[in-house]
Every structure is written in structure tokens, then in C-alpha cells.
Amino acid sequence: MGGSSYDRDVYSGSSSSGWGASSYSAMKMGSSTLDSSLRANGKILKSTSKNPIIVVLDVTGSNIDFARLVYDKMPMFYGQIEQKGYLDDFDIAFCAVGDAYTDDYPLQIGDFAKGIALDSQLEKLVLEGAGGGQRKESYELAAYYLYKNAEFPPGSKPLIFFIGDEAPYPKVNEVQAQEFGIDCTEGNVEPFELLRKKVNDNVFMLLNKYCSRSFESDITEAWTTRLAPEHVIKIQEEKAIVDLMLGIISMVSNARTLETYKVDMLDRGQTQERIAGVSESLQNFSKVTSIVPVKVSGIIPKASGGKQSTQKGKRL
Asked: Which of 116, 167, 286, 301 is least enclosed by beta carbons within 10 angstroms?
């Protein structure tokens, strides 16, 4: 179940194996043709909130189920942000990326929305399930679009997640940028560097194992040389993707430390195995976030062994 402004059924499975996407998601997620509202050409992606969130989903063959999983868990994701007070004013936009050298729909740009309206945004996405097979997808094209065409209110704190398992191409292809109506005036400037400056470095890559098999050193390095290394978050368990995003949001906003975020995971019924895996993935990022006093009540689970510590109203 979701929050007060976003209610529908959510798949409740929490096992660490298999995708387990609900039949509702399987039926509702994914269009066969591109809705005109998703076309990047000439489109400005504009938020009106203090805390805009953009999720860029790789919808090529090896990652296509992430889109269905995010769709299925979105009410929980949205509801947790509201209920736990991670952000007080936010909206979310979903984009999709593929391979601009081979795919029909390599760049899809949704609109910012709130609550249940996010369902229709996700349902419009074309889950093409293709990709070029070069261990690269056009993440750099999506990054450059967002740098050029995303608009945020003054004083806002945007947060951008990329979710995928491959590397970006080395540079933006100017012909491709022009095909999508993106003004390509920066030449060979690294698009992720530009995007990071635009959003106060709040750009994250949630990196899955390549083809769900293993983390490849060349792909990991491609991301750690473009983003802050601690912003490259490895997905140890595919079904933990929403837990990872919530953890990042809670720490970016200084609403939680990693230790107090573990309490939230425990409160929503996550297994000790899930909590340990998420904690491992977020450990490096947690070391560079601001440490602020946070009041929590509950039991902070240990990653492995040892006694659990009870934290009731304690300032951490």
C-alpha cells in the first residue's frame, strides 16, 4: 500500500530471489507505441517543487524488469517519503533510455507528477527491450538532455537517479542530440560533469550487475570516473532498488543517517538479509553525507551478528 496521496495495491513479496513483479504491473506497465508527450524534441521538463526527483530507467533487454518493479513499488516509495518526512515538497519524473545507435525509442521524457498521476506516466513508457549489445547505452544523451532542458524552481534541490547495468558512450553524438532537438553547443564537454554542476552533484547511478550476472570492472570505472565514486551505488539485490533510492533520499535530505534508515527498513518489514545488503551498498555514500541529530524510535538492526541496539528518542 502507498501513502495518503498514492494508494493502490503493491506486490508484497520480499524474497531475495527472482523479480516477483505483480500481475497488475505486468499488465499495466509498458506501451507499444511512443506517446507524443514523451518525445524529447523541443520539450522542457519542468518541475514546480522544492525537491524534484528524476528517475532515468534503462529499458533495454537486460534491465527491462526494473521499470516494472519501480512501477509496482511506486506507491510504497512515494508513501514512505511522505510518511517518514524525508522530503516536504516533491514531484517525480520518469525518463527511459536505450541505445540511440540501434533502438527506435532511445530517449523518452515523462512529465513531473505527484501521487497516483505517476501511474499514467509510467504506463506510457515503451519498454523496448532492445539495446545494441556493446556494453554501452545512451545514458550520456539523457544526461545532456537533462542538463539542457530540465528546469527547476530557484532554490530547489533536484535529485537524479540513473538505473542500469552498462556504461555510457564516451561523448554525446551531436547528430543524435540534434535529432532529439537538443541544442548541442558544449562540444566535447562531459555531459555528466555539466549535469552534476546543475544539480549540486546530486546525480546517482544505481548500477546493476551486467546482464544480472556480475559487476564488470570496466563498466564500474566508466561510472566512477564520471560521477562522485560514492554516488555509484551497486545493486546487490535487484528487488532492493526502491530501498536504495529511499535510503539515498533520506540521507541527502539529512532526514536520516544510514543507521537510522535501517530502522525505517525494519519498520516496513524488510528482512535482515535485505537490510544488510542495502547497508553495504550505501556504506560509502553514508560516509560523505552530513551527520545531523535525528530522533528515532525502534531497534537498529546489525548487518551481521552482535546485539541489536535500541534507540528511543536518542539523538544520533
From this structure: 116
Q: How far apart are the first and last CA of the chain?
A: 30
Residue-wise pLDDT for 86-122, tens only, equals 999 999 999 999 999 999 999 999 999 999 999 999 9
CA distance 129 to 71: 16
Q: What are 165-224's pLDDT values in tens digits?
A: 999 999 999 999 999 998 887 667 789 999 999 999 999 999 999 988 999 999 999 999
| Unique residue bearing C-alpha cell 527498513 | 265
- Rounded to whole angstroms, the Cα distance separating 154 from 214 reads 41
Selected from 3.20.20.140, 3.90.550.10, 3.40.50.410, 3.30.450.20, the CATH number assigned to the domain covering 23-255 reads 3.40.50.410
Rounded to whole angstroms, how far apart are CA atoms 229 and 236?
17
Residues 235 and 241: their CA atoms lie apart, in Å, by: 7
